[in-house]
Design brief:
- The protein is an alpha+beta fold.
- It has two domains: about 1-245; about 250-324, no CATH class.
- The chain is about 65% helix and about 10% strand.
- It has helices spanning about 1-45, 85-250; strands at about 260-270, 275-280, 290, 305, 310, 320-324.
- A four-stranded antiparallel β-sheet has the order 1-2-3-6, with helices on one face.
- Strand 1 and strand 2 (about 275-280) form a beta hairpin.
Length: about 325
């Protein structure tokens, strides 16, 4: 039985090695397939082009025009209205002429001369007054022109400064946006490289895990088979030992005192039979220390004979024959 079990274990070991080789070959092929798929996916990912969406962004305030630039001074070309002064001069001259004509007969020649001189003086005073009014109008026109010129200059300068500020802000905003876009592209590229590296390591780890799992499953399966085979061998051995022990226990062909040595009493059975430990002189009856009875101390109805020596039917005794 031991030789058969050993042969079965040798055959099982060969089957395990062959199955392991086949499984390794199968998983190597699977690894190659998965690697090709991974390379194809990585290739598509590498070909993806990242673009800066703000690369061509222009300054939205560049080229703006000053809405107040070139604005004309509406008071610059103002003129003095001379019609009122001319009318006033004509009216004064007419009044003086009327006075001269009305008083010419009453005053005489000398009186008329004095009166004419007086009226001339009044006309001169009136002319001076009219000249002063015209100068005041001209002064007022100049002040209005200067005020409007200052207002327009302030508007133009303020608008120019505002345009410059907006243009600088727009240029800074465009520059920051372009830099931000470039940073986004760099970040995306770094993420792509990290993803590719992670995909590669993940694929390799998955493939290795698959091979290791396959080995573990295979070894577990073969271990279970080996355990079952060992259990069968042990069961067969136990059955054989039990069969031999049962036969020996029922009918021992070696209970004769003449076949034993190193005989020592170790106890008594409930019925009062002596129980001994002993060894067989001849190893064909067994090797080691045994316990049992002596055929010359038991009832004769349980004693038999075989090959010239006493035998004992232990099934009829309250003593067990066994190796100790």
């Amino acid at each position: 039985m031991g030789r058969k079990a050993k042969n079965a274990q040798t055959e099982l070991s060969g089957e395990m090695f062959e199955a392991t080789e086949k499984q390794l070959e199968r998983y190597n092929r699977e690894q190659q397939v998965q690697r090709k798929l991974l390379e194809k996916q990585k290739g598509r990912y590498r070909e993806f082009e990242f673009k800066n969406p703000y690369a061509d962004m222009a300054n939205q305030f560049a080229g703006m025009k000053n809405m107040y630039e070139g604005m004309e001074n509406r008071f610059e070309d103002m003129t003095v209205d001379m019609r009122a002064a001319e009318f006033q001069t004509q009216q004064g001259a007419q009044q003086r002429a009327n006075i001269m004509q009305a008083l010419q007969g009453a005053a005489g020649g000398s009186g008329i001369a004095g009166l004419a001189q007086s009226l001339a003086n009044q006309g001169q005073l009136q002319a001076q007054q009219i000249s002063v009014g015209i100068a005041q109008q001209e002064r007022q026109n100049q002040m209005l022109g200067l005020q409007e010129s200052a207002r327009l200059d302030q508007l133009q300068k303020g608008a120019g400064m505002q345009l410059q500020q907006l243009e600088r802000q727009g240029a800074g905003q465009a520059d920051m946006t372009q830099r931000g876009g470039a940073a986004m592209v760099q970040s995306a590229e770094m993420q792509r490289q990290s993803t590719l590296l992670g995909m590669e390591f993940g694929g390799m780890a998955g493939a290795n895990a698959g091979v290791q799992s396959a080995y573990a499953n295979q070894m577990a399966g073969f271990g279970a088979q080996a355990s079952m085979l060992n259990s069968q061998v042990a069961a067969a051995s136990n059955m054989t030992s039990a069969g031999i022990g049962g036969i020996t226990g029922m009918f021992s062909p070696s209970s004769d005192r003449k076949l034993k040595k190193n005989i020592n009493k170790i106890g008594e059975s409930p019925s009062g039979l002596n129980i001994y430990s002993f060894e067989f002189k001849d190893s064909k009856y067994g090797e080691g220390l045994f316990q049992g009875v002596m055929s010359d101390e038991v009832p004769q109805e349980v004693v038999g004979a075989r090959d010239g020596y006493d035998t004992v039917d232990y099934s009829m005794l309250d003593v067990e024959f066994k190796q100790i």
